[in-house]
Structures are given as structure tokens and as C-alpha cells.
Write a structure and sequence with these properties.
It is a single chain. The protein is of the alpha+beta class. A 4-stranded antiparallel β-sheet has the order 2-6-4-5. The longest helix has 27 residues. The two termini are 33 Å apart.
Length: 213
């Protein structure tokens, strides 16, 4: 794993959820937060496995992926610097049926679940603050379901690019055909047309990666 500067432990959080936490509540978390490098494809949660660590992303994007019994996978949500992994923990659980892993590498802060639970038990306002993010994430997944059911593939791709751009502020996004198939919920052979459609409309440019116009 790449090294992360220890000085980041004492710097103000770049994660928006942590930054919006009240000073007394952040003081409950601060001793247990550790800076961490989040490399590409790093697993943050595995399906139906006990969650031991929660991550607050500061850069990069994590994909939340639903995994069916036949191993079919489709992205149902994404998390960036606005939020956290471990929504099941905020709800009082200890595992999720979904897989969560880094789709765009970045950095963040991690906290052991036992310490996060201790802080939430000590502060109702902190628990409520984290639950508000859970609600926001649930709204995102609902709109993702609507988009998957009602929108054309190129529209779904445009939506994802905009959501990713909001979280990275980077005009260049790495989008492999394998990930496009996962994110759009279609066969890999069917994903070539979507970026080409957006390119023809001069909304993106494509090369080794896709770029937000």
C-alpha cells in the first residue's frame, strides 16, 4: 500500500461528512481516524462479510455493487468525498449484501467499526448526522434504479460521468469497457456505442480514457 503522510492525521478533514460534523462529535472520532491510501480496486466491503473498518473518502470514488446469486454484478451507487462506506454500520448492522471497492484510486481516513460505534453510542447528534448521509445515499440508489429502468444507455453514462465529476473535480476519468458494462448493467459487447454517442454530441472526448467535456 502507498504511504500516506502522518501529518494528515492532524490536518482538517477533506471529507465533507467529517467536515460538517460538530466539533464535539469530531473530537469523539479524531483519536481513532487514520489516514489511508485507497488504491484502485481496494475492497472496502465484501458481500455478507463482517464490516470491520469504515472509510471516509477524501479523494477517489468507491463503487457499491450488487452481487446476484449467479455472480452477475451491477453498480447501484457510488461514494466519494461527500460520504462514507459502512452505511450498514450507521444503521446498526455489521454487514451488507453488496460489494464496495475503489473504482478511482484516492485517499481517505479509516476508523475501526468498534470505535465508530462507541462514538455513535456516546452522541445521538453524531448518529443522526451519519444517518442523514445514509438517507442521501438511499435516494441516489433509488434514482439509479429509475435510470437503469427508464433511460437509454448513453443517458445513464452521462449521468454517471456527471456524478463522478462532482466527486473528483477531474476532467479525465478512466472508464474501461469492463467497468462500463458493470456500471450500465449491460453485456460488455454492448458498451462501445454509449461513449461514442456522447462523443458525437461533443459532450466527451475519448482516448485511453473518457473525459468530461
Amino acid at each position: 500500500m502507498a504511504a500516506v503522510s502522518a501529518t494528515r492525521s492532524s490536518s482538517p478533514p477533506c471529507n465533507q461528512l467529517l467536515a460538517a460534523t460538530s466539533a464535539p462529535d469530531f473530537a469523539l472520532l479524531k483519536p481513532y481516524l487514520r489516514p489511508v491510501a485507497l488504491e484502485l480496486l481496494k475492497d472496502l466491503e465484501r458481500p455478507n462479510r463482517t464490516i470491520e473498518t469504515v472509510y471516509f473518502m477524501e479523494t477517489g470514488i468507491a463503487s457499491v455493487v450488487a452481487v446476484q446469486a449467479d455472480k452477475t454484478r451491477i453498480e447501484v451507487g457510488l461514494i466519494g468525498r461527500e460520504g462514507m462506506s459502512g452505511t450498514a454500520v450507521a444503521l446498526g448492522g455489521d454487514q451488507s449484501p453488496h460489494s464496495t471497492y475503489m473504482q478511482v484510486a484516492g485517499e481517505g481516513r479509516q476508523i475501526a467499526v468498534k470505535y465508530l460505534q462507541k462514538a455513535m453510542d456516546a452522541s445521538v447528534p453524531l448518529r443522526n448526522h451519519l444517518l442523514k448521509f445514509v438517507q442521501v445515499f438511499m435516494v441516489q440508489t433509488a434514482h439509479t434504479a429509475i435510470a437503469n429502468a427508464r433511460s437509454h444507455i448513453d443517458q445513464r453514462l452521462a449521468r454517471w460521468i456527471l456524478m463522478a465529476h462532482d466527486r473528483t473535480r477531474d476532467n479525465t476519468l478512466p472508464l474501461t469497457h469492463e467497468f462500463l458494462a458493470l456500471m450500465l448493467g449491460v453485456r460488455r459487447a454492448g458498451v462501445t456505442e454509449a461513449p461514442q454517442s456522447l462523443k458525437r454530441q461533443k459532450l466527451i472526448d475519448t482516448g485511453k480514457s473518457s473525459s468530461v467535456a
